[in-house]
Specification:
InterPro entries: GPCAT. GO terms for molecular function: acyltransferase activity. Keywords: Acyltransferase, Lipid biosynthesis, Lipid metabolism, Membrane, Phospholipid biosynthesis, Phospholipid metabolism, Transferase, Transmembrane, Transmembrane helix. It comes from Solanum verrucosum. With 389 residues, this protein is mainly α. It has one domain. The protein contains 15 helices and one strand. The longest helix has 58 residues. It is globular. The chain starts with a helix and ends with a helix. The N terminus is likely disordered.
Amino acid sequence: RQRQRPRDGGILQWRFIWESERALQRSIQGTKTKERTKQMLSKQAVKIAQRAEEHEPFINKVTHLLGVLGFGAFCFILGARPQDIRYVYCFFYLTFVPLRWIYYRFKKWHYYLLDFCYYANTIFIIMLLGFPTNERFFMVCFSFAEGPLAWALIVWRCSLVFSSVDKTVSVFIHLLPGSLGEHPFPLYNYEKGSNPVGLVFFTIWWWDPVFFGAMHPEGTPERASWPYVENQSYLWKWLFFVPLAAYFFWQVLYYLIVEVLRRQRLLRDPEVMTSYRELSKKAKKANNMWWRLSGLLGDQNRLLMFILLQAIFTVATTALTVPIFLSYKLHVVYQILKVSASVWNGGNFLLEVMPRQVILKEKKKSETRDVTEQQHENPLQENSMETPQ
């Protein structure tokens, strides 16, 4: 037995080495397969992009047609069945955001999906599908929708351009939630049994009393009017302080993911875009107010200044949601302002920015054609200059 032990130990050691080598080979083969698949998908994506560029005018026309028809259908549902607007919003978000992730992943823009607007919209979906009768959750979502998200349309100049899927989706991500929740009670007469006049939080809050009527604290009777306007501390708590706490939680989480956990990945590839990179790039190019403000503490602290400026913006816009929450007329004016700003910015893009982009594209195409023609002509000239021996 003592003589067999070394032999058994040698067999076990050999078997361990053999299994380790097999595992290593499988890992190498898996890595190679993954790289080949990635290269193949990348080549296919480039081919699709090239074909799409060749047919860009036609694609833009189709996109514009579908965008206008879709917006018209949305307006029809808004007037005919306002109580169904929340389902339109859920369908839009759950359909277009995954598609946007695929597109952004190819463009190396996927870190944009960690921005606050997607964080807030995900909370909206959870509220609408999971906790539709929780009034406090509703107030937090209302504050997000009519605070930072809505004002981002105006401050960051989001453009409603139906020929651009990317721009249209960006506008709707910021615009639709606020349209989800307006106040039912001023427009609804329970005694007469009239129908609600009844975008997502706008319609819930002002135009959909059936949905909103169930929102009352557990153990209390259903309210005749909601909320209790005289209870200002309750309003400020759930429309201002709690939303700000949720915002700062997102800010810490975003910083940890982008600037700590993924920092080396971003440093290795400068083409990968984040919101901070994009904002600083545009601000530096324009040399505008944001670039000068972000440099108050020096270039090494620009990221900190961007975070501080965004926090100030969030605090200010969140505070404005309280008077909007209490006034139907102010809320209607606010809705008109948001839509008008998006349409105005879209007009500026179509009439000023897009013509310049078309001219630049045509110029690049002509330069590329000239270089290609010269490359074809040079070999012919060299061949003609050669004399037979």
